[in-house]
Design a protein that fits this description.
Layout lengths: L2 H7 L6 E8 L1 H5 L3 H10 L3 E8 L3 H7 L9 H8 L4 E9 L1 H9 L12 H5 L8 E3 L3 H11 L17
Antiparallel strand pairs: 1-3, 1-4, 2-3
The protein binds ribavirin triphosphate (RTP) and magnesium ion (MG).
The site of ribavirin triphosphate (RTP) has 10 residues, from β4.
Length: 162
């Protein structure tokens, strides 16, 4: 195969996605923000937006509305409103599935060695980080945390517009 044919056959770009990372209050309290972001950047995620906030009840309940009937819901909202959260909009190839695999199982005791929750999680509630579980939820969650992006982002990213 000639060099020219090889170049022409190569896809123009691999699909890129947005995903949302939250560094939760137990990790910010323990000064783990820099260490967690270092892991993320090492994995070639691009940081598109970042925000420090303390969630109020309204935001936490909208963010976790899907869990409102679960037994752990009140404990979860109480924890998520207990201190500082860092919200980070990330971008990468296959960002959603890649970040979920780096984050590990919900319960840090069951998370694989080397995952962020295995390293920095303290309990199933205080599990250090959140990662979006689907491309659609990544957009929904991002618009809650970064309202100025509402209607302006979608998954997958249209590489012609990017
Ligand atoms: P996340 O949404 O925070 O990334 O976590 P996840 O997908 O791994 O887990 P999910 O089922 O969405 O649960 C959301 C958060 O609720 C807390 N949780 N507590 N049995 C329990 O006490 C329990 N189960 C879940 C965790 O903080 C979890 O991250
Ligand atoms: Mg979840």
């Amino acid at each position: 195969m000639s060099k020219r044919t090889t170049l022409m056959a190569r896809p123009r770009s691999v699909m890129q996605e947005y995903t949302l990372l939250l560094i939760k209050p137990n990790a910010t309290r323990k000064h783990r923000v820099g260490a967690i972001l270092a892991i993320i950047e090492e994995a070639c995620f691009k940081i598109e937006e970042m925000r420090l906030l303390v969630m109020n009840d309204d935001l936490a309940s909208r963010f976790y509305a899907v869990h409102k009937d679960k037994h752990f819901y009140n404990r979860l909202v109480k924890f998520m409103t207990s201190g500082r959260t860092i919200a980070v909009l990330l971008r990468r190839e296959y960002a959603v599935s890649h970040l979920r695999s780096m984050v590990g199982a919900t319960n840090p005791g069951q998370a694989a060695p080397g995952t962020i929750r295995h390293i920095y999680g303290e309990s199933v509630t205080m599990n250090a980080v959140h990662a979006s579980d689907s491309p659609e939820n990544a957009i929904f969650e991002t618009c809650l945390l970064f309202p100025h992006l509402k209607g302006k982002i979608k998954n997958p990213i249209n590489m012609e517009e990017a």
